Amino acid sequence: MLICLAVDYRRADVATRERFHLAEQRMGEMYRRLIGGGVSELALVSTCNRTELYAWTDGSGQGALERAVEHLASVWMPDEVERTQLLTTLTLRIGDEVGRHLMRLAGGLESQILGDGQILGQVRSAYRTACEMDTVGPMLHRLFEIALRTGRRIQHETSLSTGRNSIGAEAASVALRRFGTLEHARCVVVGCGKTGTRAARQLAKLGATDVVLINRTPQRAEELAASLKGRVAGIETLHAEAAMADVVIVATGAPTYTVVAATLAAARRNVGNASAPLLLMDLALPRNVDPTAGELAGITLVDLDALHPPIVAAEAARRSAVPSAERIVEAEMRWLRHWLATGAARLAIRSLHDALVDLCRREVAFVAGDGVAERTAQRIAAKLLARPMNVFSDAIARGEDVGELAGHLDQLFAAPPRRGTTGEHPVLVPPASASLATSGAPLA
C-alpha cells in the first residue's frame, strides 16, 4: 500500500518543523535505514515548509500499516520521547490520498504560497535523489511520474503560478510595504540559492539599487550580482553588512544560525546603528537567524510563520485558477487509480504468471527451440491471465481484500527456494487499501 508521513506548516509551526527536519547531510544514512519493516520503496521530500516520507509497503491491512509507520518513525526520530511527539504531530495518508496529495503538492496547491513556483523543482529533485539512492521501485516511479506531469500541466494550463508566487519574492514585497520605497534602502541577501536569488531579483525589480549579496560560494554571488548590478561581500563580513543594512533576507542551507544575535548587536553598536530600524527576514529551515535577534532594539524579525499572513492576502488573485488545477488533479488521479489496481493485481498473480511462463517456455523450446520460446511463452501467459488480471483489478478498485486469494496462488505456484537457501518465497500481497481514498488525518 502507498503511505505518506508528513510534517508541514499546516499543523506544525516553524520551531516544530525545524525539530523534525531531516537535514541534507543525513539523507544518505536515512535512505539506507528507512528500507525495512515492510517498506520496500521510499522517497523523501524535504523543503522549508515540510518533511514528508512516501513509502510503498508490500503487506496489507492494519498490522502492516502500523508496522511500517513504527519503523519509519523510529528511524526518523530514534529517541522514544521525540518519536512519540512526532507521531502526534505528523499527518498520515494512505492509498489514494497519497497520490492526490503529491499531485497537489507538485502543482503548488499545497504550498504556503499558492502556486509556489519552486515546489515542482523541489519534488523533481527529491525524486531524483531517491532514484540515486536506489529506493524507488515501480510503484513510486509511477507515482512521482504522474505527480510531476500533473505539476507541469497545472503550470502550463492554468494561471495558478502567475504573478508573485515564491517565498523569496514575497519577502521582497514585505520589505517594500514596510519602507514604502526601496530606492534608498540597503538590502543584504544572504544565500544565493533559489530562494535567495528570487528575493534579490524581486528587490531589484521593486526599485532597490543597493543590493549586497553574500554566499559561501562567491562565484554564485558574483554571477547574480553582475545581472543585478549589485555588490558581493564575503561571508566573514555578514554581521558587519547586516549592521549597516535596512533589509536583510537570509536563506541558506546552513544547519545552524548564520546570524547570531550577540554578534549582530555588537556590530550595530560599532557602526552607530544600535537602535536603527532593521527588517530581518529568515526564510530558512532550519532557521538561520538566532530568534533572540528579534529582541534587539530596532530589529523586526520575520520568520516563515510570520510571513504567512501577507502571503495569504497576496494569493487571492490566484485562487480563481484553483478549480482548473483541481480538475487536472482529478483527471490524473484516474490514471493513478488504474495503475494502483493493475499494479497490485500483477503482484497478486505474479507467482501464477511466472509458473505459467516457465512451463510454456520449456515446452515451446522443446519443439521450436529457444529462439521463439520466450516471446511465445509471454504471449500465451498474457492471454490466459487477462481475465484473472481484470478480476483482481476490479476487486482492488472496489477496495476488496484479495490478500488471502493472492496468498493461496503464491503457495500453489511460487517457485521453490533454490538449493542451499533458507526461508520461504516472498509473498507480495496487493493491498486492498491501494485504491482507497482514506486518511489525511493526524496519527494519534
Oligomer, anyone?
single chain
Q: Helices and strands: which structural class?
A: alpha/beta
Percent range for helical residues? 40-55%
CATH class of the largest domain equals: Alpha Beta
CATH homologous superfamily title of the largest domain: Glutamyl-tRNA reductase, N-terminal domain
Q: Sheet with the most strands?
A: 6 strands, parallel
Shape: elongated
Order of strands across the widest beta sheet?
Answer: 7-6-5-8-9-10
**Unreliable residue stretches:** 418-444
Please count the helical segments.
17
Description:
With 444 residues, the chain is of the alpha/beta class. It folds into three domains: 2-163, Beta Polymerase, domain 2, CATH 3.30.460.30; 167-304, NAD(P)-binding Rossmann-like Domain (Rossmann fold, 3-Layer(aba) Sandwich); 339-418 and 428-433, no CATH class. 52% of the residues lie in helices and 14% in strands. It has 17 helices and eleven strands. Strands 7-6-5-8-9-10 form a six-stranded parallel beta sheet. It has a five-stranded antiparallel beta sheet with strand order 2-3-1-4-11. α6 (119-132) packs antiparallel against α7 (138-157), α7 (138-157) runs antiparallel to α14 (322-348) and α8 (167-179) runs parallel beside α9 (194-205). The protein is elongated and about 95 Å long.
